[in-house]
């Protein structure tokens, strides 16, 4: 049966023939202890199997070496990739990551931040479901360091990390135009998703620069491959039929490709299709997808750096200036919209 | 700037006109405090914005209300789904989840468990990359409660939760036989993955019960859709060609379906294909996959229950008996191997 904590700091001090303060210094500020003494203490720590107690260390130092990541759905590959970057980067800084899944519940999100405060987390990286001012005020009232993930900085007077969705839309448009496509269409799920709206904005702007005809816009009932099938049927009914389609995510794009193929059209010869996200379905699609890749892991790592900079700066009474990091997406070219020969 | 912890328990006690002990009781054992007093203390807590310190509470009670989840790759949908179940269930128990990604590094895995011990976590749920006895001994030497995830109990003298892979293989075989398929094949990635071997064992056993011919076994260089393409080319070269194929994961199955289709065969008419996992690619495949679904979220929830039962039992000096929970998978029938008409 496990009984962590049964060996105490004083046991180690006694065994090494030093004071408890020296043991503590060996653990927390090894450079302040003479080499021979430090080695003696470290040997005693190993021999007795002593595990320093972070809870006690925290009460003295005020720092928990814990940080929180709060996301709407950890089972979605977007947030799972971010979590991977956060976990790895936190570890490099000597911190551990507490992960919370809000399941899109605003009240739960607030309770989870309260839990993080109780654990004296240095702060939270949060992708709030609603980035409206009222909800963010509620979160900020909890008086902890918050770094917003995947939300533009203007919505938050704090640090933030995001990926340039407008630029992603522009990239998709420019690629389709470079392939010679002129009858363009944009496919998304339900109206009102901010990321989708920013991608549409970039797509529209870049199309307007190059082509005289406005792109068609199709909204499906769902943002998955079923929605893609539904959107494809709408595209097939258009006259003239689009020859270049940009979908706001890969699942929609796979649904579009499958349905167009079923209707006897060839992708990319008749219709070129571009997805978004470079998720696993993009690579394994029957026609592998050209898609916009987002640096999720980098995003997670940068979010950790922002939070640690803020919390250490404030702890050391240095002036902290909030900042935002915006990553550029990149285009991955595959068969659904290949490079011109 | 955030300064969590500036309001103390004594501030609340002063404001409410009670002792610090009463404030502590109101937080930890509300049922022991008279209604009127409790309401007065709670009002003071709200008014002052007091946040109880879990670190201090932990030093008194010995319980951190933290538990760890240690997985090889949080970006894989299998572990991300488990994490979702663990996070939700931990929360229901009033615990928070520390998540670690080992990235398949055995030494990192040990260091992460040490970190969990330092944070006085009640224990860890762990899907160790290597479930060999030597590595498990190393983990158990850390003297903390461990619940093994997705590893059979025999490999661990502790609690475990897993999904019956042998049964999953049996289900796939029985379904293909029920469809009238007699020339069966099994497709996996590299040799030596224990889960794949258990699925093959179940598949073989069930085939032997019903069909006189041994199934063909194909191993590809990778366990993804590229490996599936490679396996499909091997299947196409066989004489007689298999008419029913079971793949150990959905990515392989998608690769098989795409390559068979490219070669002019019809799925399921010429070859029925069954995948494993019911991941997102199963639903969005050009021919949606019949596949074996695993209850990942239930697995995560059960793992939390095992850990809490063990840690509370030991803390209260009750006898703890290790136990294993084995979940049954289920078959999801779609177009790649539909029910007989």
UniProtKB/TrEMBL annotation, chains A, B:
Keywords: DNA-binding, Transcription, Transcription regulation. It holds the Pfam family Peripla_BP_3. InterPro entries: HTH_LacI, LacI/GalR-like_sensor, Lambda_DNA-bd_dom_sf, Peripla_BP_I. The keyword Transcription regulation applies. SMART domains: HTH_LACI (SM00354). It comes from the Bacteria. Residues 7-61 form the HTH lacI-type domain. PANTHER family: HTH-TYPE TRANSCRIPTIONAL REGULATOR GALS, LACI-RELATED TRANSCRIPTIONAL REPRESSOR. This is HTH lacI-type domain-containing protein. The lineage of its organism: Bacteria, Bacillati, Actinomycetota, Actinomycetes, Propionibacteriales.
